[in-house]
Amino acid sequence: MNRDWADLARDLRAADHVAAWSDHHPELGGACTPQGVIDRLAGLQRASEWLTHDAVMAVLVQRAAAGGFDGDLAWRIAMRVLLPKAILMTRSQLRDGVEFDEILATMLSALCEVVRTYPLERRPRALFANISMDTLSLAQSVLAADFDDRAKLREIAHGMGPLAADATTSALLLGEAPDPYEQVRLAELLVRAVELDLVDAEEPELADGDARAEVLALVSWAVDIQALTPVEAQRITEYHLSASDVPGRAHRTTRAMGAEGARTRQRASRATRQLRRPDTVTAYLAEAA
């Protein structure tokens, strides 16, 4: 998909179509390339301009349903916008003996169908969150219907157990080698965090089990479902991730920061109230299960 996006970025016909969209839809902010639409959405999200964000997403969804080159272009841009979310949702559906690629393929197929068939007239608000949740629901239905067949995959996984005695394969089987799919997820999470200004571009890579990764995953998810604004998310990470591992950066604590630290802690405390709401907690636990 990355190669496809790189090809699309060089497609002059695609740029002409996006520029034509902007002539008819001022909410696109003058975007004249596919990446320009992505940047426009990211900027609106950072500014918490959700009505305009919905309006831009509506342009993509409406055109994606039309077919032809125009529809295919809108569909590919919408898929790109939602790809990081699809990867995170895929992780939440991992099961023993089931390949990541298989679940991701199911998730992307569901996302494609939801984008093409989304009932825009009936549900014109919170498009990013609604499309994400509809995609997860559809993917779960498909996976559940196929669950019995997946028992065969578990048998294959269990059959690999004796190989653990072989010194050349034990590190891989025991999970000591880096999981490439987990690395992709963490890289996507870090990119998303930078887009939301939760961390800066110099933030060190995330690692599986890293507390930073858990904090960033939670607040990014909360922004995506509009439980937090980007500003609230930034206040939370400013407080909880103030002691960064960036070489040469001073170790910051709220005590060392004096009055500034007290204000940072107070702002973060107010922002986390939304995360403590029972419905938000329940939704996050359901997605992480």
Helix fraction?
55-70%
Structural class: mainly alpha
Beta percentage is under 5%
Low-confidence stretches: 150-178, 243-254
Number of helical runs?
A: 14
Largest sheet: none
Q: What's the overall average pLDDT, rounded? A: 75
Give the helices and strands as they follow along the chain.
HHHHHHHHHHHHHH
Find the count of extended strands (DSSP E, 2+ residues): 0
Measure the end-to-end span. 27 Å
Shape assignment: globular
Question: Radius of gyration, rounded?
Answer: 21 Å
Features:
single chain; 289 residues; mainly alpha; 14 helices; 67% helix; 0% strand
Description:
This protein is an all-alpha fold. The chain is built from 14 helices and no strands. The radius of gyration is 21 Å and the shape is globular. About 14% of the residues have low confidence.
Short description:
With 289 residues, the protein is mainly alpha-helical.
Q: What is the topological layout?
A:
Blueprint: H1 2-9, H2 12-24, H3 34-46, H4 50-64, H5 68-92, H6 100-117, H7 127-145, H8 147-159, H9 170-173, H10 180-195, H11 211-224, H12 230-240, H13 259-271, H14 278-288
Helix pairs in contact: 3-4, 3-5, 4-5, 5-6, 5-7, 5-10, 6-7, 10-11, 11-12, 12-13
